[in-house]
Write a structure and sequence with these properties.
This protein is mainly alpha-helical. It has one domain: Jann2411-like fold, CATH 1.10.3300. It contains six helices and four strands. A two-stranded antiparallel sheet has the order 1-2. Helix 2 runs antiparallel to helix 3, helix 2 packs across helix 5 and helix 4 runs parallel beside helix 5. The radius of gyration is 19 Å and the shape is globular. The chain starts with a helix and ends with a helix.
């Protein structure tokens, strides 16, 4: 398996199908230095999606659906990615959690069926970006049910913005890499406090 969008940032993929959610988020142009947006064109988006579905199939042991994307689908997928990112952003001390309706996430079709083993399975519906989004939300919902979705976060460094899976014992991670983003932010905060102290003196 190779989650190309996530691995290019030197990150370890989230477990199971949640890695699809993470990988979609990491198609964004992010990191330091900035990597290209993998949803920039139909060709790039199609190449990413083919690889991501193959990796998803390997992680979940389910057959990968065949999904074709048009130029309109790529824009829809970018919009969905933006809305999805709002849902997983880690709250910071100077910002409140995102609130309000997220339009593209509210009308995605999904079907439930009983398989031959008596288990209820959720299946994505729709075509193009809606099918990708439906599959992604199914994985996010399943992770929510197992209380692992909260471990999928966006790096608090706005200059980075990569999505990482927090494997810390108490789920306290805020940076995709403490050495790269955490230390730089802590140094900026330290210098700001020092300046503020000097101005008060």
């Amino acid at each position: 398996m190779s989650w190309t969008a996530t691995v290019r940032y030197g990150l370890e993929p989230a477990p199971g199908g949640l890695a699809l959610v993470q990988d979609l988020l990491n198609t964004l142009s992010a990191g330091r230095p900035r990597r290209p947006d993998l949803l920039e064109s139909v060709e790039e988006a199609g190449a990413w999606l083919d690889q991501a579905l193959e990796s998803w199939s390997g992680a979940t042991h389910l057959p990968a659906p065949g999904i074709d994307l048009t130029a309109e689908d790529v824009q829809g997928l970018r919009d969905f990615r933006h809305d999805l990112n709002r849902l997983v952003q880690a709250p910071t001390s100077d910002s409140s959690p995102q609130t309000g309706p997220v339009a593209s996430l509210m009308t995605l079709p999904t079907a439930l069926r009983l398989d031959e083993h008596g288990r209820i399975q959720a299946e994505p519906r729709g075509t193009g970006w809606r099918q990708v989004a439906s599959l992604t939300l199914i994985e996010a919902y399943q992770a929510q049910c197992t209380d692992t979705l909260r471990r999928l976060k966006t790096c608090r460094n706005p200059r980075c913005a990569t999505s990482f899976y927090d494997r810390s014992r108490n789920n306290s991670g805020a940076w995709h890499d403490v050495r790269v983003c955490g230390n730089a932010a802590n140094l900026r905060n330290y210098r700001a406090r020092k300046r503020a102290g000097a101005e008060r003196a």
